[in-house]
Amino acid sequence: MEIEFFRIYVEFYPLLLYNPIIKGGVLMTDEEQKKIFSKNLNYYILQSGMQQKDVAKALGYNPTTFNTWCVGKIIPSAGKIQKIADYFKIGKSDLLDDKTFLAGKKTKKGVVINVLGRVAAGIPIEAVTDIIDTEEISEELAKSGEFFGLKIHGDSMEPRMYEGDVVIVRQQDDAESGDIVIAMVNGNDATCKRLMKYAGGIQLLSLNSKYEPMMFSNQDIIDKPVKIIGKVIELRGKI
């Protein structure tokens, strides 16, 4: 009897360790757990305002290894997960739990905002009719400005943001260097990029290294023009 109990414990301990429970008490597969961990990890990296490689360096991990966690190829050991959680000052469950499922359990009253499929140049946000969904934000956050959600298209912001993810955006016409922003360039539809400021102009950076930075002088910003329409505050990843 004791041998059988030990066998079951050894077999299921990794599942208990990573808390692989989702809706209806169904056990998640290893691939699902990797994807959820990846989404949560990228969310907290985004919130920190740091680059992925800088977080890896701060934690003492090889950037290549750290990237495999960020893209969902591998899930690190329990000790490494705890170290990452300590770095971001969060609980280990914040990295392992299915946030999409937990979001449905909110008890505090929230404010509903529209999620836009696209933002076309020359059209004020309040006049956009391409409303594809809604999201809820806290009353406290809503008091800090005007917000909208925007659906991510393409792969230029991978591995933090994927096709179909939704970002929560506070409307503003400027942002700090390093912020993730929604910008319009040369009359084109709005795009999501990291803003970097310099004395002579700005760069709009994709997180996906296969895309070249978009560089603009101060004169380009006026002539094209380049306009910031909002700062990304939250990422709502779709599992």
Question: What is the topology?
Answer:
Elements: H1 2-17, H2 30-48, H3 52-59, H4 63-70, H5 78-88, H6 93-96, H7 99-103, E1 110-116, E2 131-138, H8 139-142, E3 147-151, E4 166-171, E5 180-185, E6 191-198, E7 201-205, E8 214-217, H9 218-223, E9 226-236
Parallel strand pairs: 1-3
Antiparallel strand pairs: 1-2, 3-4, 4-9, 5-6, 5-9, 6-7, 7-8
Helix pairs in contact: 3-4
Summary keywords:
239 residues, 434 Repressor (Amino-terminal Domain), Umud Fragment, subunit A, nine-stranded mixed beta sheet, 34% helix, 25% strand
CATH superfamily of the largest domain: Umud Fragment, subunit A
Content-based structural category: alpha+beta
Total number of helices: 9
Q: Radius of gyration from the CA trace?
A: 20 Å
Number of strands: 9
For the biggest β-sheet, the strand order reads 2-1-3-4-9-5-6-7-8
**Mind describing the biggest β-sheet?**
9 strands, mixed
Structural commentary:
The protein has a nine-stranded mixed beta sheet. About 12% of the residues have low confidence. The radius of gyration is 20 Å and the shape is globular. The chain is 34% helix and 25% strand. It folds into two domains: 102 residues, Orthogonal Bundle (434 Repressor (Amino-terminal Domain)); 127 residues, Umud Fragment, subunit A, CATH 2.10.109.10. The chain is of the alpha+beta class. The chain is built from nine helices and nine strands. The protein starts with a helix and ends with a strand.
Write a compact overview of the structure shown.
With 239 residues, the protein is α+β, with helices and mostly antiparallel strands. Helix content is 34%, strand content 25%. The longest helix has 19 residues.
